[in-house]
Amino acid sequence: MEKLTFLGIGPKIGRIAIPYLAIAVTLGILYPGVFSFGHAVRLPFMVAGTVLIVVALIYYFSTLRLMLPGIKENRLVTGGAYRICRNPLYSALILFLFPGLALASNSWIILTASVVAYVVFRIVIHEEEEQLERIFGDEYREYMKRTPRFFPKIL
Predict the structure, then answer these.
(1) What is the pLDDT of residue 1?
(2) Angle at 97 between CA 59 and CA 99, to 5 degrees
(3) In whole angstroms, how far apart are CA 17 and each of 24, 53, 72, 81, 88?
(4) Which pLDDT belongs to residue 110?
(5) Burial of 21 (0-12, 13-18, 19+ CB in 10 A)
(6) How far apart are CA 92 and CA 121, in angstroms?
(7) What is the pLDDT of residue 107?
(8) Closest-CA residue to 37 (of 103, 128, 133)
(9) How far apart are CA 42 and CA 104, in angstroms?
(10) How far apart, in Å, are the Cα atoms of 27 and each of 12, 48, 73, 108, 109?
């Protein structure tokens, strides 16, 4: 029987998104006049960015707490954050953490790392979905029908 893996497609996204993010952060630091949102929005963006970072970390680690027992027991996790999104770990980073870093550091170029990471996610997510479909079959197919892939369903 095929077993679940902890990392999934994370390393494939990270191989591109993390170096891109590092370059974006470096450019933002070296050329703040070019890549900042502007001085007038610095404080409100810093506050908003900090809030997004906190939300991202809470969302990420609460999801991780749900996922780890599921991997250990080789069972499909569909509760908690997995009820509103099939990939809450990736969405926590791409939708909340990267934008939070961009706002907190007042650097729009960092925000582009979300776009890069999302594009890579879209290209490689099928690998993880195919694995879950092989392991869980109809249970996963039903879960796919009722739960969005990436953008959390709020209602």
Answers:
(1) 67
(2) 135
(3) 10, 17, 28, 23, 17
(4) 97
(5) buried
(6) 13
(7) 97
(8) 103
(9) 8
(10) 23, 22, 44, 10, 8
- How confident is the model at residue 154, as a pLDDT? 77
Q: Please say whether the beta carbons of 13 and 79 come within 8 A.
A: no
pLDDT at residue 118 in the model: 97
Mean pLDDT, the chain, rounded, equals 94
* pTM, two decimal places: 0.91
Cα 146 from Cα 155, distance rounded (Å): 12
Q: List the chain residues with pLDDT less than 70.
A: 1, 155
Q: Which of 6, 45, 17 is nearest to 123 (CA)?
A: 17
Rg (alpha carbons) of the chain, rounded to whole number = 17
Q: Which pLDDT score is estimated for 54?
A: 98
Place of tokens 């907190």: 104
In whole angstroms, what is the distance from residue 113 CA to residue 22 CA?
Answer: 9
CA distance 3 to 25: 37
Going from the N-terminus, what domains does the chain have, and what CATH number goes with each?
10-146 (1.20.120.1630)
Joined together, the tokens standing for residue 55 give 């939300």
